[in-house]
Design goal:
five-stranded mixed sheet; Cobalt-precorrin-4 Transmethylase, domain 1; 12 strands; alpha/beta; 29% helix; 22% strand; Methyltransferase, Cobalt-precorrin-4 Transmethylase, Domain 2; four-stranded parallel sheet
């Protein structure tokens, strides 16, 4: 299971590139496989569409059980909203754990890539919450948002908006506005590492007026987060 980072070649790790090079088959979501075109010449490619994660895991494991070296790729880190968990669960269910050699290759997460573009917002405890209710029901997501807001955690929102989901980000903003002032620094990082990259520094009160897409990550600061000459910085606590 290979984390390929947020998308751009500059944010891939050497370990990721070595794993792809050592593989004879690459399995993944089609746009992610396309991002690896410079590494996959001559390899067997299995690219598929959205909501086919389980099928991809099963295919990768089936090929590996045949003695193939397979890279099952995820964006960001394979262990963060990625393929590592479901692949291990399926391997266990199908009796392949211990029979197939498995390696999990970490990668640069969307949260860390967005934070690097914004400045230093993740300098202390933080939460990462996906607003997608495809696999987690909305009442559970809402409860987690309220807990993060009440705990004064810097919070990174994955999957903030899509063509189908138009209300969740507004609901999340409302929850945080009940716990933090509108002046709280916030940021939107979209398509980090790609030619379409767009990074906007704003505040919690104006968050909903920003352009946010399914390729965006939203970062909401806490009570110690400040804007320093265009950089979003959360105090680490050192005596300066």
């Amino acid at each position: 299971m290979v984390g390929i980072g947020p998308g751009g070649a500059d944010d891939r790790t050497r370990r990721c590139e070595r794993a792809i090079a050592a593989s004879d088959a690459v399995v993944g979501y089609a746009p992610y496989v396309e991002l690896l075109a410079d590494l996959t010449a001559g390899k067997e490619l299995h690219a598929s569409g959205m909501r086919q994660e389980i099928e991809r895991c099963r295919l990768a494991l089936r090929l590996a059980a045949q003695g193939r070296t397979v890279a099952l790729v995820s964006s960001g880190d394979a262990g963060v909203y990625g393929m590592a968990g479901p692949a291990l669960e399926i391997a266990q269910a199908e009796g392949l754990l211990g029979r197939v050699a498995i390696e999990i290759v970490p990668g640069v997460t969307a949260a860390s890539a967005a934070a690097a573009r914004l400045g230093g917002p993740l300098m202390t405890d933080f939460a990462v919450i996906s607003l997608s209710d495809l696999l987690v029901d909305w009442p559970t997501i809402r409860r987690r948002l309220k807990a993060a807001a009440a705990a004064d955690l810097v919070t990174v929102l994955y999957n903030p908006r899509s063509a189908r989901r138009r209300t969740q980000l507004a609901a999340a903003a409302s929850i945080f506005l009940a716990a933090r002032p509108p002046s709280t620094p916030a940021g939107v990082a979209t398509a980090v590492g790609s030619a379409d990259e767009r990074v906007v520094l704003c505040d919690l009160g104006s968050l909903l007026s920003q352009e946010v897409t399914m390729r965006s990550v939203v970062v909401i600061g806490n009570s110690t987060t400040r804007v320093l000459d265009g950089w979003m910085v959360t105090a680490r606590g050192y005596r300066l």
